[in-house]
Amino acid sequence: MDDTGILALIETARQMSKSDIEEFSEIARALGDMRLLAAGEQFAISRLSGGVSCDVYRVQLDRGPVCVKRALPKLRVEADWRAPPERAATEVAWIRLVAGINPDWVPKILGEDRARHLFVMEFLTPETFPVWKGELAAGWVDVGFAAKVGAALACVHASTAGRQDLARAFDNGAQFHALRLEPYLYFTADRHSDVAPRIREIADGVAKARIALMQGDVSPKNILCGPRGPVFLDAETACYGDPAFDLAFCLNHLLLKCVWHPENTQLYMQSFDALRHAYFAGATWEEPRALDIRVAALLSAFLLARIEGKSPVEYLTAESHKDFVRQTAKELLRLKDLMLANVEARWSADRPSFVPR
């Protein structure tokens, strides 16, 4: 398919900038190479919210809408944060692996273009598959759904634990360091000397672990509420390591939501409990206490990192809110053999007046 033919297919070409036309043309060429777009076929393309790490597009084809995702070499944050775009292939590999465990938990992959660092997956409509973060923010808190997230996550970890073949296939330590350990943990440690040794110790532990396959970005913004349970997105950080990372990363967001929307605190904390209990019910690969201690330590570090790291949560803007999270996180980081029940109790006891009890 030549450039002239591609441009003729873009319905809004006259309204777009030259760079837009070049960008959309490249996507059209990729779709053509994957035989998802036929020569002469009309299509419409629009950008979706891709977050900080990628571009995401909705493309309307004759066969129906599809979703195209392309990894960015430089992430959209204030700090200088770069990561290899080859991580798109990692995400495809993780999605295909999880599809073999339960296809309801991931979108279907329709095509992959490694040279362009992009892939195509089925488009899941927001009406049927709302984003969990949006549901939580709106006060539509389904505690049972949180339990399903925990159970699904534990199942993926249990299915991949102790697998040397997967340890080799997802040996993405350098990529994981660039996308997760450095911007979240080591960067935060550099800004807070009083807890830096503890944060570096926690990060070093994750870097050395080879226990199960981490997804690396288990956040409510990357989980859809599907008719058959959770659908996990954005697995470009997948790496063989410590499953405690995924659980802590997700639980962290439920605690922070209490500060963002304090009127829903009770339901958020119930969801926290439901998710962790469902997860540990399926965590069969190791002794629960050791896992719990690692999760609690990581959770404490993430609380501080989502205020002070390279990718702070966008919804906590008031200094009083940030100060509460900073202070609580540091108190937790100083406690020895901290467990999740201790984190929950301390968070509940220390909530300031802006968080209803």
Please render the helix and strand layout as text.
Elements lengths: L2 H7 L8 H16 L10 E5 L5 E8 L2 E8 L15 H15 L7 E5 L4 E5 L9 H6 L5 H18 L3 H6 L3 H19 L4 H13 L3 E3 L8 E4 L2 E4 L6 E3 L2 H17 L4 H18 L5 H21 L10 H15 L6 H10 L8
Helix pairs in contact: 5-10, 7-8, 7-11, 9-10, 9-11, 11-12
Can you tell me about this structure?
- This protein has 2 domains: 3-122, Phosphorylase Kinase, domain 1; 132-349, Aminoglycoside 3'-phosphotransferase, Chain: A, domain 2.
- It has a 5-stranded antiparallel beta sheet, with helices on both faces. The protein has a two-stranded antiparallel ribbon with strand order 6-9.
- The chain has helices spanning 3-9, 18-33, 87-101, 132-137, 143-160, 164-169, 173-191, 196-208, 244-260, 265-282, 288-308, 319-333, 340-349; strands spanning 44-48, 54-61, 64-71, 109-113, 118-122, 212-214, 223-226, 229-232, 239-241.
- It has 13 helices and 9 strands.
Strand content: 5-15%
- Which ranges are low-confidence, i.e. pLDDT below 50, for 5 or more consecutive residues? 1-14
CATH architecture of the largest domain: Alpha-Beta Complex
User: Helix coverage percent of residues?
Assistant: 40-55%
Which CATH first-tier class of the largest domain would you pick? Answer: Alpha Beta
Determine the CATH superfamily of the largest domain. Aminoglycoside phosphotransferase (APH), C-terminal lobe
Average residue-wise pLDDT: 88
Q: Total domains, how many?
A: 2
Oligomer: single chain
Shape: globular
CATH topology of the largest domain: Aminoglycoside 3'-phosphotransferase, Chain: A, domain 2
Q: What's the number of helices? A: 13
Class from helix and strand fractions: alpha+beta
Radius of gyration (CA) equals 21 Å
Number of strands: 9
Please provide the ordered H/E string of secondary-structure elements: HHEEEHEEHHHHHEEEEHHHHH
Cα(first) to Cα(last) distance is: 62 Å
With strands numbered from the N-terminus, the spatial order across the biggest sheet is 1-2-3-5-4
Q: Largest sheet, if any?
A: 5 strands, antiparallel
